[in-house]
Structure formats: C-alpha cells, structure tokens
Design brief:
15-stranded mixed beta sheet; 15 helices; eight-stranded parallel beta sheet; alpha+beta
C-alpha cells in the first residue's frame, strides 16, 4: 500500500494485505497434506478436485477422542499416527500409515488400524470426496472383485457402493479419468463422499485392518506432504511472522476496552423495542464471538486473559454455546444427567461470566446442540435407549417437538442454571442483566428433516406422533370420510411413507405427520408430491402449531425461573417457501430473529467454494442471511465465518460490519468459534477460527465502526409480504431460492434479489391478509457493475471472477477499501487509498 499524507489528525490505519500466488511449476494438479494429519486436498488449477479425509464413530454413531500426529519424511512423503479411544466403550485403537508421491501422476496411500481392546463401533474410514469438477451422470465407476461394475452420479448420495471394490474410475466433466486401485477388495459406503472402510461394526484386539491404494491422476502432480515442503511465493522476503501483542494494552490507541460500558448490565437489561435492541434507553449493537463446549469454562487465569483480549478487540458480547452438551470436553454437565452440572466446571463458568461482565461484555446462553441423554436420564426419558446406546446419546433433530419427556429434561437443565447463584456476581443467572439472551434450542425445527427420521426410527415417538396427528385431524375434519376426501385415498398409507409406516388407521388413531422440506417445496407439491399435496399442507400446519406449543411451554418455564431478558426460539431454517416462512414466523413469535450461515470450505457449487470470495457477487453468501430479517424484530447472525480453507476471511467482518450491522440494521454478530488462549491463533488450520489474524485482525477498526454507528442504516426499505394462513394453503406471493451445502447457504428472491442487500434494506413483513409484493428496483442503484447503497456511503463492484470484486466505505468515522482492487484508488474524506496488493482490507478509522 502506498503511504499517503492523511488529512485528518485523529486517524488510525489498519491493513491486511495478501498476495495471491499461483501453483509452483507447470503441474496441472497440486496435492497438499494438512499439517498434523493425513488429510489431503488435491487441486486442479487452484480449484478443489479431490479430498482425502479420515473420520470414525463409536457404537451407534457415538464420539471418539482423537489424538493425531503426522510428520514430513522428505519432500515427497509423510507418515501419520493416530491414537484414538471410543467414548462409549473406552476401547483404544491406533491408525498408522503414510502417503507418498510414487510417480509423476501417482500417489500411494497405506493405512492400518490396530485395536488394543475388542469393541463394537460404527465405522472407521478414510473418505474420498470428488468436488464439483466431477458433477454429472455416471461419474464414478466401481469395479468389483467378480469383474462386474457399477456406476454412480456425482454429487453422491447416501448408500453403499459395494463391499468388494477393486478399482474406482472417476471421470470429470471434461472427460479426464482418475483411478484408485486398491491392494485388496474394499468396502465403500456413500454419504456425499466415498467412505473407504477400515473397520465396521466391531473390531477385535490383536486383529489389524488395512487399507491401501494407488491414486493415479490425469496429469502431472506436485505433492507437498506438509508446510516445510510447500513452495514459497516469489515475494517471500516481504512476508513476516505475525506477532500481534495481545491483549492490546488498554492505554493503546488501538484498544477498544475503554469503549465498553462497565460492568455489563449496570444500566439494567438489554430490551427489544420494535426492530432494535435498546440499552440505557439508547440503541445498542453487539459485536461478539462464540465459545463452545468446555471452552465456556476455562480456568480462572485463562478466563481473565480472554476477557481482556476480547474487550481490547471491541467484543462486547460472547455466545456461550453447547456448554450443556455433556461432561468433560463436551461441557459443564455431570456424568450422570443432562439436567445436572459438574460443580467444578460450573464454578469455572461462573468466574468467566463474572470476568466478562466486569469488562462490559454481555453473554448469550445457548445450552445445547440437540439434547444429550446421559445414563441417569432414563428416569426422565424411560425410552432413552431407543435413541442409541452409550453413556451419552443425542436425541436427534426433531425429537424435542415430539417428546414431552425431553422437554421436561431441558426445562430442568435450564431452570437449574437460571436459579443458580453465581458466587462471583451474587446474582442468579436469571437475575443477571449481563445475560442478554437465552436461546431455547440450536439449529432445529419441527419442519426440518429430523422429525420424519425420529418418527421412523424411535418407536415411542412414532406412536406418539401418530396419535397426536390423528387427534389434530379429527379436530379439523370431524369424520373419516371428510378426511379421506380431502387427502385422497392414495395419500393414506401411500408411497410418501416408508414401508414401516403404512399402517395408518383413522379408527385406531394412527396417522403419521411424515414430511420434510423437500416434500413441502412448492415445485415438488406441483409435481412428484402432487398426490400428497393436502396431506403435506396439513402436516406442515400440525408441525408448525406443535413447534409453537413446545416453544411456549419452554419459555413459560424460563419466565417462571425469574428470567426477564430476551429469548430466542431457534436459528435454523426449514427449506424454502411455505415451510421456511412458517418456521420463520414461529421464531418471530419469540422475539429476536437469529440465523446461522457459513462460507467457503470444500464441496460443490464452484461459486461458493473453491477458495471463492463473497465480494464477487454483491449480497451473496453470509450477507444473504439478511433475507430472513423481519420488519419489527431485531436480527442477529449468531454463527458465521469463512470456513477453512479460504484465504479471504478478512472480507467477512468487513462485509458483516458495513452491510449487515450498518446498512441492513442488524443488531448482533457472533462469528463461530473460539478455542483461544487469550490471544490470536498461533497457526491457521481450524475449520472455524475467529482468532485467526486474517479474520480478527480487523476487529478494532470494524468494532469502532459498528459500535459508533458509522455506516447509516438504509432509509429505503423493501417489504416482502407474508401472510401465514395463506402459507397453509400453499401460497407465498413471491419466489425464494436457496443454494445450500450443509451449513453453507445463500438466498435470494425474485422480488428482492440478494444483490439488493448492497443497496437498500430488505425485510419480511407478516401481514394480516394476503398481499402481493412489488419487485424492488435495483437498477436505480446499479451502474456499470457497481451497486451503490441508498445512503451513498457504500459502493460494491462485483466480478465474473470468483476471486474478484471489492467495495468501499466512505463515512465521517470510517474509510475503507476492501477486496481485489490492485491498482485501484479510493478517495474519501480522510485520504486516498491505493492498493498495491492483489487483495487487501484497508481501514482508516477516527479515534
């Protein structure tokens, strides 16, 4: 970056500059192994091509404690050694092996699993995942030991490729063939990847399990077995080791600690006023981060280091997530019950909450990611073992809505914490105004896929769901003849249902609310699911009402425990169109709207993956979550980040800070997640890492901008009208679209495209009658590829290159140039910024 004279006297400058470097040499393919493991990614021309990973599960998909090591042996090979223990049985086992380049286009892989004790397990496997380059029909051909062959399309679904595979042939969309030749016939399961099985169902002490194969790529391949072998960029001499002081001394001009009003809650509670959060009778923005599992209960010294670090970086709220997911590493629960807490771990969390509170940092409580059941919980949930075996099992998505016993357990768990007096504050958690939010349930909905799975696989919940739905249908239709006429005879005990559920009987009070977002999708309701249309509309209505009842019961218990703060119902989504907006309306009934989204990582759609940048398409990726915002509710994004590997993490806080918290008027941001030592991360590599310097390095400037309100909220507001009763008739009034792979999601609509989020505020409005929605006139804000915000403070230039695009901020308090803008100059009130790096995030901020 050129140094230019700054015309303001009180301006701080911050810059994160990254140089883009091409692959070394002329190799068409590059393979690189992640430090400390056998996980290897193969790129073609810089884009993901194939990925090799390892994973395992104990009995009934239970967890495994993993300790992984690897070393580079030379410039072309590596060796790994994993020492693992099954959580459910305590059985230890090792996995050892290596990967080496054996020819110009070949890689040789070997692994051996050796149990030290006999045990049941689900599976130990190495996965091979083809990326979007292979998407198409018959892209995978498997040769079996008997000489036969089978083919599969990519993306791969769920199933079994075979138990005796001798060779795989993977053909990409340009006709290039990659082969995997196995040393011995190998069993391969499918779940979006090819799971090459080392051991399955059980293993026996002293018996080893081997996997070996030679992978031949369709072109010369460079292999880097670790960071030491990786080539250095041509300008390596200009790079330096990041050694940011942490925490930033409070007297430093960079520190944000003095900006936080201490202690948190000294003016009372944060409350909701229409679409804003208010504190001390003034609007407040919360710029936070996530901590999960036992990271919510560090020792006291680490608690103080973290609190100091977060305050210095401008963090004024922390989401405590999954602290009640289990014991030990999994949280602060006792070993015996999900409703009881380990006294030592609870005391550590007490101290940490008090340390954050003292520094002006509010807390959000988010207890679980799907309720865990411990051995002792069989007294509350007598059918516990129907969910699985082991000391700790998850009830699965959807179970909360069908099981009053699981609800009872969660209510006991929450009440026990809320009525507990924190000895370091003298307040119960219910009384403490520093506890700004309580989240009922993370990432679930009765309208999501899990409910059908629980009905199919948990006998007690299957019987209960069938009885509840039958009673609901009696209330609606009155008589069997009216029900049969409405649904159609073919919809009852028909092809929509798995074979085990085709015993529906009106007289016996047995009808299954079996559905999922794919069934509910309006395109499918008009085609493949047309014979079941009324059945599915009734199923949506029943599950929507059931979800509302469960949340209301849960909220009442929390209020009875004395908590008067903000409550969030859940933060997930349920498909698109009717099911999506019914779920959104259910969450709307609770208050603050909360959602999750991620960007980057590996996988399918080339725009959203393959080291892409959100800057290429205005409004895309994380920012498109704003299409879930509701006109008279505050909005938060409580999980988001660029998933590793992705180089452009610095763009995330910049986009969310300027466009989300600023132009769109969002209220809370919690990127996911932390396991820090009270400082920046020492190395890159975790899938989600808030304290990585290329992500958190911009916090002091972005936090200043957010907390000060530098970027104005748009006064131009587009309403998308949604009438809940019409949803139950199959009418929305506009089209919405979703691109999703796991947690990575992007949204748009035909009346307010995602790109419009770069221009004006877009919100949903729940109406008392059906109303059409007028399209937004984006062209008024778009010129020559640049979308200019209605406020005039932001301008975003997109790009046809997935690693392109940039935007500028020009306000009295903040000036910035963000993205791929080499050679570009951005003028503003404080200075001109000229970027000489291929990618940069450059901020000038008033003190």
């Amino acid at each position: 970056m050129n140094q230019r004279a700054l015309r303001g006297k009180t301006v701080l400058a911050a810059a994160i500059l990254l140089a883009m470097t091409g692959a070394a040499g002329a190799s068409a393919f590059t393979a690189a192994t992640r430090s400390g493991s056998a996980e290897t990614v193969i790129l073609r021309d810089g884009a993901r091509y194939l990925e090799l990973t390892y994973y395992d599960w104990g009995p009934d998909w239970s967890g495994v404690a993993r300790d992984q090591e690897a070393e580079e042996l030379d410039g072309a090979s590596m060796a790994f050694s994993y020492a693992h223990v099954l959580d459910a049985t305590g059985a230890p086992f090792t996995v050892t092996g290596g990967l080496a380049k054996t020819g110009a286009d070949t890689l040789r892989f070997e692994a051996e699993l050796t149990p030290q004790e006999s045990s049941d397990l689900t599976m130990a496997q190495f996965s091979l995942r083809p990326a979007s380059a292979f998407f198409g029909d018959d892209a995978v051909e498997a040769e079996h030991a008997d000489g036969s062959a089978s083919v599969r399309d990519v993306p791969l679904g769920i199933g079994r490729l075979g138990d005796d595979i001798t060779e795989l042939r993977l053909t990409d969309r340009e006709g290039r063939v990659t082969t995997v030749a196995f040393d011995a016939p190998t069993a391969i399961a499918l779940d979006q990847d090819m799971r090459m099985i080392l051991a399955e169902d059980a293993f026996t002490e002293g018996a080893s399990h081997a996997l070996g194969f030679t992978l031949t790529l369709p072109g010369e391949t460079a292999y880097y077995p670790g960071p030491s072998a990786a080539p250095r960029p041509p300008d390596w001499g200009q790079w330096y080791v990041f050694e940011g002081s942490s925490p930033i001394p409070e007297e430093s001009e960079w520190s944000m600690a003095g900006w936080l009003d201490r202690p948190a809650g000294r003016h009372g509670r944060i409350t909701r006023r229409d679409d804003q959060l208010v504190y001390n009778d003034e609007p407040i923005k919360l710029w936070g981060l996530n901590l999960s599992f036992a990271n919510t209960a560090p020792d006291n010294a680490l608690a103080d280091r973290r609190a100091d670090f977060y305050a210095a970086m401008g963090v004024n709220s922390v989401r405590f997530h999954k602290y009640a997911d289990g014991a030990g590493w999994a949280g602060i629960l006792s070993e015996d019950s999900a409703a009881e807490y380990d006294p030592e771990m609870l005391d550590r969390m007490d101290y940490f909450v008090a340390a954050l509170r003292e520094r002006g940092i509010f807390v959000k409580l988010s207890p679980v990611f799907i309720t865990p059941l411990h051995r002792g919980d069989v007294e509350t949930v007598p059918y516990r073992d129907e969910f699985g075996s082991g000391d700790r099992v998850k009830v699965g998505h959807g179970a909360l809505y069908l099981s009053t016993e699981v609800q009872d357990l969660m209510i006991r768990q929450v009440t026990n914490l809320l009525t507990h007096t924190n000895p370091y504050t003298g307040l119960t958690y219910a009384e403490d105004p520093a506890v700004a939010f309580f989240e009922l349930y993370n990432e679930d909905s009765a309208l999501f896929f899990g409910t059908a799975d629980r009905i199919e696989n948990v006998p007690t919940l299957r019987e209960r769901a069938a009885g509840m739905f039958a009673a609901w249908l009696r209330d609606k239709y009155g008589a069997e003849e009216a029900w049969t006429e409405a649904w159609g005879a073919d919809a009852i005990n028909g092809g929509l249902l798995p074979g085990g559920l085709r015993d529906e009987d009106w007289a016996a009070g047995r009808v299954y609310p079996f559905g999922n977002p794919w069934f509910y999708d309006p395109d499918n309701l008009e085609t493949s699911q047309a014979p079941y249309r009324q059945r599915l509309l009734d199923t949506m209505a029943f599950l929507y009402e059931l979800q509302n009842d469960v949340y209301a019961r849960y909220e009442e218990a929390i209020r009875d425990a004395g908590y008067e703060g903000e409550i969030i119902y859940s933060n997930w989504r349920a498909g698109r169109a009717m099911s999506h907006y019914l779920n959104l309306h259910s969450d709307y009934r609770g208050g603050v709207i909360d959602r999750h989204n991620y960007f980057g990582g590996g996988g399918g759609n080339p725009f959203y993956f393959n080291n892409a940048s959100m800057l290429a398409a205005p409004g895309s990726g994380l920012l498109s979550s704003g299409l879930h915002q509701v006109i008279d509710r505050p909005f938060m994004l409580s999980e988001w980040i660029h998933v590793y590997p992705n180089e452009w993490g610095a763009e995330g806080p910049a986009i969310i800070g300027a466009y989300g918290m600023g132009l769109q008027g969002w209220d809370v941001s919690y990127p996911f997640q932390n396991g820090d030592d009270g400082t920046f991360s020492a190395a890159l590599g975790d899938s989600w890492d808030v304290t990585a310097p290329q992500f958190m390095g911009v916090f002091p400037t972005v936090a200043r901008q957010v907390l000060r309100g530098d970027v104005a909220q748009s006064g131009v507001v587009h309403r998308r009208n949604v009438h809940p009763p019409s949803l139950l008739e199959g009418r929305v009034g506009f089209e919405d679209f979703t691109v999703q792979e796991g947690d990575v999601q992007s949204y748009s609509t035909d009346v307010f495209p995602a790109a419009a989020l770069a221009a004006a505020r877009g919100v949903n409005a729940f109406t008392s009658e059906f109303q059409e929605t007028e399209p937004f006139g984006l062209d008024a804000y778009r010129d020559d590829g640049v979308v200019t915000a209605s406020t005039g403070e932001l301008a975003w230039r997109g790009s046809s290159d997935i690693r392109g695009g940039h935007f500028t901020i020009n306000t009295d308090g903040t000036q910035a140039l963000v993205g791929f803008a080499e050679g570009e100059t951005a003028g503003g009130a404080a200075a001109e910024i000229t970027l000489e790096s291929a990618f940069g995030v450059v901020y000038l901020t008033a003190q």
